[in-house]
User: Fold this.
Amino acid sequence: MESNSVLKDGAISAGFYKDTKYVQGEFLKQFDIAENTDKNYIKEVMDYVIDNNGAFTLGIVNPDLEIGHALTLWGYEIVDDEIIGLYISDSDDDCETNFFLGIEWDNEFDGGSWFLQSDYENYYIDSIMGLITVPEPSTYAVIFGAIALGFVASRRRK
Assistant:
């Protein structure tokens, strides 16, 4: 059976189909790492996605070649509250294994960016897409309604 990496009809980048809940934002949340020059922002984003039981895609860009690529991001490693690297897999490697990839903060590039090391040298982290459940407004209404009822009940009891 022959296979290739060409997008299917009706699909857009990253394989998400048009007119699906992923594209419409119900589950997909994109975090622009390149536009945020706070070096701790990447950790905040990853913690948020992990806390919400999400999955990651890491968008990387090579500014010299003007090309981008996407990696599956599994987690990160820190030493003394500093991120030193990421655990990733790359579909170009047939996703055989997760591996550790060092990252380094560069203050000089665009006001501050995370650059990848090793095989991905000269690539910087552009974005993280988190595939997470984003609650609908009605979910928030139920939560706040329950809190309000609890407050009223506790006030009546006193």
